[in-house]
Automatic annotation (TrEMBL):
Source superkingdom: Bacteria
Annotated transmembrane regions: none
PANTHER family: GEO12009P1 (PTHR45663:SF11)
Thioredoxin domain residues: 7-125
Key word Disulfide bond present: yes
Gene: trxA
Keywords linked to the UniProt accession: Disulfide bond, Electron transport, Redox-active center, Transport
Ligase recorded as keyword: no
Protein name per its UniProtKB record: Thioredoxin
Amino acid sequence: MFNMPGAPGGGPKPAADLIKDTSDRAFMADVIEASRTVPVIVDFWAPWCGPCKQLGPLLEKTVKAAKGAVKMVKINIDENPQVAGQLRIQSIPAVYAFFQGRPVDGFVGAQQESQIKQFVDRLAKLSGGADDGGLQEALDAAAQALEAGDAATASEIYSQILGVEPTNAAAYAGLVRCLVTAQDFARAREMLDGAPPELAKAPELAAVRSALDLAEQSAAAGPVPELMDRIARNPDDHQTRFDLAMALYAGNKRDAAVEELLEIVRRDREWNDQQARKQLVKFFEAFGPTDKLTVMARRKLSSILFS
């Protein structure tokens, strides 16, 4: 159904083009934009990390051997903590892979060379682009169906992909999102808890786990008109505004939900042990670090906190 060829042909690219150091400031260009055409591996490391010194050279060796099918950037988290913080990286070495602007694979901790090769080989298949047997097109079609509210069609496509590639993190997470959309929270959590070991720490599953947590929480929110009326009568009723944000999120009004939480932070950033800010972070995790709303809301939040 989906043929997954190896890396595209052509001569090897210079190592300088394949592997580079990056920073928080250059992350968007070096990783997100660069991954539009070829998978980019991000190695989060620090000078004091012993396992990092073992893993880094193995990654570089394997990336060079792929001859342009993937690229790699290295980011020193001591000097550049922002992106690592956004991705909630708690231990290093941590490796994320991005393709077409979003995380698609990853792992934490030292790995054997054979495991690293398997990791890079999986990514190299993605870089086949239009020759990947329709896999990326299928993932895009499923995502579009889910966004349009057609969870049944999305679920069918994701299931077909997993039938061919059982460890495809994007498809597995997508299938869980379909269950979340259908409010089948029990099956969604069961699927997350039963994920194959090689997928358990994938960024996509971390994002959908946050989405599930939020969906369960927002299911108990009250009716939007009633909450809005109460806010109109008392704009400083932060708990009602918080409940309104969750009700809006439940209704798939993400932008409006984010704005309500930002308004709480504007009015009282310390309210309820910074609950509004913490909930925004959960939103960002669920949306993903490259989502346009995440980027915009983070900018607004920083402006409020540091004004």
